[in-house]
Write a structure and sequence with these properties.
It contains 14 helices and 13 strands. It is an alpha/beta fold and 419 residues long. Among the domains are: 137 residues, Rossmann fold, CATH 3.40.50.10860; 150 residues, 3-Layer(aba) Sandwich (Rossmann fold). A seven-stranded mixed sheet has the order 10-9-8-7-11-12-13, with helices on both faces. It has a four-stranded mixed sheet with strand order 1-2-5-4. The longest helix is centred in the C-terminal third of the chain and has 26 residues. The site of glutamic acid has 12 residues, from helix 12. Glutamic acid (GLU) binds next to helix 12.
């Protein structure tokens, strides 16, 4: 077990919580409990590479809080993973699960790795090695991992299989985001974006806007970014800009994200679609476009105090975790930008993970209409609860979301511990 450092991303995340303490009476003992993760595990994972050499990868799993239920949260494979980042992500999971009122706490995992430099076999051995290393730290009633940046259903299948081998019994509810053929839930693969669409539709409705007239820029073209661009295009919004880690494209008309994905699949990047009316732009330029809706869907800390003043979008849907720093958030708030916070905006993923876990445990599988109806109900109700609170107290949607989550978390802590 490790001591978590006072590093910046996690402290920045906690500033969001501090802001909410002004609007809700939380006992000092509970604030203390919520100021640190319960436990953190750092592991070294030996992986036999295709060359025959053994390479050691560093991985983490952090348990932030389990007052409302088992720890829940994805596993990230990325070169930039650190204990600080995983801790911040586990913190956000705690509040996210409370915002949508699903019976989970918050956890997160990560491995420092660039998957683009690994073969499929190496990624499989790393995935199995990670589970072997953390197998006593997780469990279907204790801590349930899922996909995150650069992990996917195939990786979840290897991980669930490995857990079943180690424990001597198949345990599908150990992990969510699995392939449908191996205990996954229908509708999980694009659930983050589907949930984001329900939320943005609700926002557009309360703001009295017409989605057919709104322009949209999406940063990131992974699972979350691509699917939100596709779903919004199909639902009538005008997608005018998208980007991946190599850069972005912009058109003063709209384009079909599915066609852009075909080009990315052939060439490796969305930037290859920059032909005719479609112009190449940088990721930084994408964030500063004069669009109605901006959707950061990649990594954290993309909008900081350095570029916040240049943001022109009227609405920001945080599909990534933590894309706006606390300082930047204050600037955007002053500018009157309607920021829909990550702990609501991207909660569709973990909500359908919850559905998957329920289906695994009951052995009864739902159809897509049931998944979508139940997801819509949760996302729309959560948006409406937060929106009415933000109007009542004249606070940002983010602070209102933390207040709502805190009401639920503090009640759970009190019921268990009488602090
Ligand atoms: N990684 C996703 C998130 O950040 C999903 C987590 C889950 O399904 O447990 O919300």
């Amino acid at each position: 077990m490790l001591n978590n450092t006072n590093n910046s991303l996690c402290n920045d995340a906690k500033s969001q919580l501090e802001a909410a303490y002004t609007y809700i009476n939380v006992k000092a003992n509970i604030k203390n409990i919520l100021s640190v993760p319960k436990e953190s595990l750092e592991v070294s994972i030996p992986v036999k590479m295709d060359s025959g050499d053994v390479k050691i990868f560093k991985g983490y799993r952090v348990h932030y809080d389990n007052s409302r239920g088992p720890y829940k949260g994805g596993i990230r494979f990325h070169p930039g993973v650190s204990l600080d980042e995983v801790t911040a992500l586990s913190f956000w999971m705690t509040f996210k699960c409370a915002v949508v009122n699903i019976p989970f706490g918050g956890g997160k995992g990560g491995v420092i790795v660039d998957t683009k430099s690994l073969s499929k076999g190496e990624i499989e051995r790393l995935s199995r090695g990670y589970i072997t290393a953390v197998s006593d730290f997780i469990g279907p009633d204790k801590d349930i991992p899922a996909p995150d940046v650069y992990t996917n259903p195939q990786i979840m299948a290897w991980m669930a299989d490995q857990y079943g081998i180690l424990k001597g019994v198949p345990t599908p509810a150990i992990i969510t985001g699995k392939p449908i053929e191996f205990g996954g839930s229908i509708g999980r693969s694009d659930a983050t974006s589907q949930g984001g669409l329900y939320v943005i539709d609700s926002a557009v409705k309360v703001l009295g806007l017409d989605k057919n007239k709104l322009t949209v820029a999406v940063q990131g073209f992974g699972n979350a970014g691509y699917n939100i661009a596709k779903l919004m295009y199909n639902s009538g919004y005008n997608v005018v800009a998208v980007s991946d880690s190599n850069g972005g494209i912009y058109s003063d008309k709209w384009f079909n994200p599915e066609q852009i994905m075909d080009i990315k699949n052939l060439s490796g990047s969305v930037t290859a679609a920059a032909i005719g009316d479609i112009k190449k732009i940088t990721n930084e330029e994408l964030l500063e476009l004069d669009v109605d809706i901006l959707i950061p869907s990649a990594l954290e800390a993309q909008i900081t105090k350095d570029n916040a003043n240049n943001i022109k979008a009227k609405i920001i849907l945080e599909l990534a975790n933590g894309p706006i720093t606390h300082e930047a958030d204050k600037i955007l708030d002053k500018k009157g930008i309607f920021v829909i916070p990550d702990i609501l905006a991207n909660a569709g993923g973990v909500t359908v993970s919850y559905f998957e876990w329920v289906q695994n445990r009951t052995g009864y599988y739902w159809d897509i209409d049931t998944v979508h109806k139940r997801l819509e109900k949760i996302m729309v109700a959560s948006f409406n609860d937060i929106y009415s609170n933000c109007n009542k107290h004249d606070i940002s949607l983010r602070t209102a979301a933390y207040v709502l989550a805190l009401e639920r978390i503090t009640k759970a802590i009190d019921a268990r511990m009488h602090v």
